[in-house]
Amino acid sequence: MVRNYVKQKDLTLGQQLFRMTAVCPRFKCFMKPNCVTWVGSIQPTDMSSVYIVQIRYVLGLRPKVFVRDPLLRRRNETEKIPLLFPDNDLCLYQPRYGEWLATMFIADTIVPWAALWLYYYEVWHATGEWLGGGEHPRARKPKGQNRK
Amino acid sequence: MLLTQSVSYQLDDLLARICGKLQISATQHRLAETRYHAIGDWLSADGSRLATYKPAIYSQGSLRIGTTVQPLFTQEYDLDLVCQIQVNPVLLPNPVDLLNLVEARLREHDIYKSMIERKNRCLRINYAGEFHLDILPACPDPASGATCVVVPDREARSWKHSNPRGFATWFETIAAEVRPEFKRFAEPLPEQVSVEDMVVLKLVVQLLKRWRDVAYAKNFELAPISIVLTTLAANSYRRQESVSGALLDILEGIVSEIPATGRLVVCNPSNPKEDLSERWDKRSDAYVAFVTGIRRFAAQWRKLSEQRGIPQVATFLEELFGETISRNVIGEQAQFMEAERSAGRLAVAAGSGGLVSVTTSHSTPIRRNTFYGS
């Protein structure tokens, strides 16, 4: 990977915070040493509901996104929500493809991906189908055929 | 579809997709034309007992104005035609003779003879699995002039006034080729609808007819007829460019026209002698069902316009226009969104964090991601 040759530095919490304030001003931030939490709203499309989401980022770990309000619901009370981790944070990217790295701004990646996820979540409720694509741990494709 | 610039654009895209699915396809339309021209040739051919009256066949109703809607439980469209005979109606003391004359000529044809069905004012030719062509014999009405006609009515044993050509001209003048606003920003449509065919008032009429088919599915004899809905819609249309907005204004317009006493009278604007709603005189239960139904539709549409949440909007659409078609169009819209995402044409708006098209927001596309997890 390119990253091995041109080693970029991980972004600091300060850099993440600054970018978030610039790009997503509707998010409020709560700082602790080595950990930042943002809370703000996302409305994926104008026909969609407005969701209050919480993004939690501990330096060195993967950013986690939780939907706080309205709470995520199963479909028809029985069908399990697709692409959701057991602790209810959204499955937004495939780490093996380097889609998100600590060198990238959360505001430019995680936040838009959460909007996309919420859009497909609503469509899933309406149609019964997850139309946003994605991969499941057990359904990995053989090496070399991961991406087009 | 312009992504997410307003609720109405996104909803209008869904509504236009619904109409696209209900509309007769271009292929079927051409086939119907070929079929009815052949019928016209048979009626006017040398040796036909009608030949001296120069019968001419032309389309009327939804086929003429482009508001066809596939029936709920069958693939067969109802297509309406006029067979105009150049004879002064005073020379035909028994109007039903005209129906019999046309029927007799059709029965001389080896193929048509087995496909004919008698109706009150027309002769139906059934093309199984495709459509049925309702042929309405008519004579010019010298007393009313212009394109006005009189048509025989079997039950009433008399002439009834009509003006199918005048009605179409009147409707087209009001529809005025006003295109839906959201299409100005649009990507190519579902292929069955070409952009030129998309006229706001026509889409609204198709939606009203579809609502009627769904709402009165269990007691269809109470359902308001298409021409009444079409006339009421055109009467309340004010050149709105939003499909959902026009539908709301039209529903409220219709509701406000319902008189406190007596019944609503809907006349053919191009021939006031024709009361399009005369059936309500005999069937007061159908009139009551119409009033209740249209008031309910208006209330539902008002609620839907303020609704947020795709699943919530879907619930309304499913109830009003049918479950399968509504789910399908929401799925198609999502697939369009997904194609835009794969092509790197999606960005997010700074204000709402909502998804927008890169071309309209001048922002950087969303970085590629693969939802991954259990």
Description:
The complex is a heterodimer of chains A (148) and B (374). Chain A is α+β, with helices and mostly antiparallel strands. Chain A is 22% helix and 18% strand. In chain A, strands 1-2-3-4 form a four-stranded antiparallel beta sheet. Residues 143-148 of chain A have low confidence and may be disordered. Chain B has two domains: 7-24 and 171-329, no CATH class; 26-162, 2-Layer Sandwich (Beta Polymerase, domain 2). Helix content of chain B is 45%, strand content 14%. Chain B has helices at 7-22, 26-44, 61-65, 96-107, 164-175, 200-215, 226-235, 243-257, 279-282, 284-305, 310-321, 323-342, 358-361; strands at 56-60, 77-84, 116-118, 123-127, 131-140, 149-153, 158-162, 267-268, 271-275, 346-348, 355-357. In chain B, helix 6 packs across helix 8 and helix 8 runs antiparallel to helix 10. Chain B is elongated. Mean pLDDT of chain B is 91; it is low at 188-192. At the A-B interface, strand 2 and helix 3 of A face helix 1, helix 11, helix 12 and strand 10 of B.
Question: Could you list some keywords that capture this structure?
Answer:
heterodimer; A: 148 residues; Ubiquitin Conjugating Enzyme; 22% helix; globular; B: 374 residues; Beta Polymerase, domain 2; two-stranded antiparallel sheet; 11 strands; 45% helix
